[in-house]
TrEMBL record:
The keyword Acyltransferase does not apply. It holds the Pfam family MlaD. This is Mammalian cell entry-like protein. InterPro entries: Mce/MlaD, PqiA-PqiB_transport. GO terms for cellular component: plasma membrane. Residues 54-122 form the Mce/MlaD domain. Keywords: Cell inner membrane, Cell membrane, Membrane, Transmembrane, Transmembrane helix.
Amino acid sequence: MTANISPAGLNFSMESVNAVVQGAVSFDSPTNSESATENTAYTLYASLRDAKRGIEVGITLPNIAGLEAGRTDVYYQDHKVGILSALTIAENNEDILTGTLLIDPNQANLLKTNTHIVFRSKKPSLADLSDPQRFFRSDYFEIIPGDGTEKLQFNVIKENELLLKAPNTLVITLTAPESYSVSEGQSVYYNNIAIGEIVKQKLM
């Protein structure tokens, strides 16, 4: 188990109980690699990230505070499948970041034309109390797979923009004399049922 405190929050990396107690080594075999021979020597790395083994995926995203190369993880259905390996400010535009995600080669089928990569900010939830790894997770990227051909360059969207990508989404504009403490990402309810959310806010 490892822990990291950064501007993005507190992040714990926890392996299985058996691996922590007994110790374990995971083997990663690249496709089409040659078979090992007797007494072949290998370097043992602490993680896939340290081995720099993975598919490099280019990303472009808004300048979001808290992102950190080597610390911000990538998930698919609560399984960690990669990490942010590089991050820089776009040339001539400080509002845009460009970066590289290092994705587990076994997850190559997730990277398609209609796939979305979403940046999610950690929000405390009582449901996470039963899952320590989710509870201590900091801000992260999530892959939402789609169909199509292979794609290795994505524009990352924020989680409050994801609804706009869904089919048949109804977009409405509200105006008010003051903000009423409303902010981007807050849910819209009808009879105590969440039916939408505030995706953008602008003060006039």
